[in-house]
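User: Show me a protein chain along with its predicted structure.
Assistant: Here is one chain, sequence first, then structure tokens.
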Amino acid sequence: MQCVLCEINVNDHPIVSESEVFCCPGCHAVYQILKTQGEKEAFRTHPLFEQAIRSGLISNPTLLEQLQQKTISDLKYEKLHLEIEQMWCPSCAEVIRWILLKESGIRNCFVDYTTDLASIEFAPQKISKEQIFTLISKLGYHPSTLESSEKKELNFSLLLRFSIAAFCSLNIMMFAYPIYASYFSEDDGSASMFAWLSLASSLPILTYCSWPIVKRCITALSLGIVGMELLVVVGVAASFALSLYNLLQGSLHIYLDSMSVIIAFVLLGKMVETKAKFTAKDSLFRISRNLPRRGRKKFPDGTSQFVPLKDIHKKEQILILSGEKIPLDGRILEGKAFVEEAAMTGEAFPLEKSLGDLLLAGSTIVQGWVCIEVTATLKETALHKIVEMIEQDLHRKTPYIRKADQIVAWFVPAVFLIAIATFSLCWIHDASLETAAMRAVSVLLIACPCAIGIAAPLAESKLIYELACLGAIVRNRGCLRLLGKETALVFDKTGTITQGKFQIRDHRIDSHSTLLKGLASYSNHPISVAVAKSLGVSAQTLDFIQEHAGLGMEGKFQNKTYRFGSSKFMHLYGIEIPMTDASPLSYVYFAEENRLIETISLQDILRKGAIEMVHSCRPAKTYLVSGDAFQAVESVAKACQFDVFYWAQSPLQKREMIETIQKEGHVVTMVGDGINDAPALAISDVSISMVDATEISIQVSDILLTTNDLQVITQIRKLARKGQKISNQNLFWAFAYNVLGVGLAVFGYLTPIFSAVAMVTSSLMVILNTKRIFCSKT
């Protein structure tokens, strides 16, 4: 027999599902997901298939080499994740992205304006990290790695520019009083003096303070990108040119105070936005910093010394003392300790860990000491994988936000057309050149699309940060528009609604116990693990073992066939099983040939907050699904008051169930944790995986929970609805303000100074409104 996915020969322990043979659970799960997504025909080029090979989930170790030999290019690509400061608007992100993509050796580049974070895929043989840094720096931005970046809430250069602009603007406004007074009385020469002083005071603003805006405008135009800086630059330049022209002509009708206040307000708005963006990035920084940079390596002679984590490999030993963070995943070889795992699992209280227990990197030793054997290198730890997943998904944007960005692209040219039309019509209708120019400048200033550009992205970034504070890491931003709006929520039972830690109620040790343990030991299903653990005998080596996905295990010993699994599995072979009463127990069966030997009863435990969480989902319809028997699923469904429950469901049946619910017109959220949940998670509108989920389930999920308390699902749905509401408010205000403001400016009801104030006030209102998104823990 040959594995359908990786094509290796399967002689022992095959997994059979719908007449298809697989060599391992990994190949089976990956194939089901690809089949669900309709990608099984061209699966060799699918990213999930390639990721599964790299992570070792697919058993064929030579398959990756075969694929690499077929690759057109021999270049090896690496990922670089940066924080880029001094981005002023979405067009800044586009400028950086296009400049980098033009360079040889850079395959992909995603820059997220809302968080100042960038993900760059490059070939070190073609371009170095230093060259990438130089390219970005030449554009006027400040790149830094996530590890080395000083996470300052406010940039000093920005603060200095604003301080100078504010100081000069205040002086120019004071100089403006005698100038305005001269309009109503004869000038004795002092007004002219103050006009020239105003011109001198405006020069630092026009040059130093506004330079970042001007530079970004020039760079964007060189790439054919029209952004909000163009409106600001043209508006300020027009104000200055008109003022200088009038001053040289002997007229005191100058607008240097308007120009200066515009720059000051733009810089002020940027400062407030920077603070908001800092909050949005903080959750990622907290996670990425949660891992120490060094570990105390223990050598064979008993000595220990701190070394960089990159120099610590699998099977080597690390000594960790009280108060220290665990640097790498590993199992305890010596010692005992109480471990704080809140950063990784959300567990509020320290847990006692002893010989053989697994410790996760990022956790903290509260009391005691341990010596662990490393089971994962720096790039393989659970914590690093979570950080990497977040970084890899920085480029994902919802269609709603892309729509807003596209509107900015056509909005700016439209404003210029309106400004030109206003100037032309005003001049044609016998108005003075000064009046026509002033109206055109007013249109340019009021229409600055700052508010539109940040309305939805800023609200989304704040929402992602607050969700992280609650214990929900958003991997796919696209799910945020549906989260909280679901009409159907589907929950896996084992490991999701329940803890997945089965307790054996009763079992007798006899001559068949070694055979039973031999079968149970070859499956990682929670029930099999619980049965194998409970048997205090050694496992008998069988001649042949085969796993039937979602049903049970089958093996042969001394020409006899033994089966261990569900009632459905037994019925397939005509094995009669006794009737059991409805109880919160799961029953599994052990048979020899066609004769039942033993009925084994197990009991699972509900997770904290499960009952309250299900109640909070109303009026949405709630479903419970499991591969367990009817009695076990029914008891949990009744305890939590689920609307509908399904039992004895295979991975494919779970996927079909989700598809059926969707065809009924429901928006479906699926919450699961196991490999058998992955196909259902892949097809759901919103998919959520638990903190201790299998890697393949996490890969296909939109949200990863970092806590075992199910009540967090209630909180994140409520917070998501609030975030969506505020995002819509931001966009409505931004568009309404621009439409109204441009109309008033066209007809001369807004002068340049009021246009500038209104424009910046709009951006500040969007930012302050976004601040209303907060969770109870922040």
